[in-house]
Specification:
Length: about 250
Amino acid sequence: MAAITSFVGQLLDQTFLAAVDPLCNPAMIALPAMKGLEVLSVEAFARRNHTFPASTSFGYSEPINNMNFCNVTVTYTHPGWGDSIHVMSYLPFEDEWNGKFMANGGGGLMAGGELLSHFTMIPSLMEGFAASITDAGYLPTIAEAFDTSKTWTFSNPGNVNWPLFMNFAHVAIHDMATIGKAVTEAFYHKAPEFSYFLEGSTGGRQAHMLAQRYPEDFDGIISVCPAINWPRFLFSNLYAAVIMEKLNQGHDFT
């Protein structure tokens, strides 16, 4: 029985080793110590000839085929904060890498996350960038991300969840720059030549925050449609409805 158990164990070990991609596995992602961060886990697996499904919501009417990359997820915490944050990276294999790093942001009440990958990481990957995004420790559905009635920022009624709030505001975005570039350097054995941040809407506001608080994180920061003036922005959304009401061509708001 002992001999059989030993044989089965060796067979399972060999099967596991055969399944590990030599170009993409957690052992390759050796991260340095990072001040204020504790890495909880590193996951890495290869996606070869991968197909991203069509997403009309994000402008892709057809599937995106034949994508080859290493998918890395780093889970970490800020000691004492009780948080758990994921930084996801899509790393094209070396012959398809353009030598640069692109960090992506979020939308609505989402700091980022793979739910937005069609709009964020996939375009970066298609251009040859090593791309990263963070969920900032909060992973709503798409519907929840645009529902301002949610009380996700509160640990309990009347008490703000400050770690979650600060992560969403700026801390996790800065961490993504640190971790994403470290993952990129570990994978390719050299640092990216240039690093950028690109996003719009909430991501555009994240870009403004990065430029103000962490100007050294990136060589270039692109803020698209940040809607930074919220009083004007929100009231402008009502303007068309008000005009329609005045012309008796819209809904009856009385």
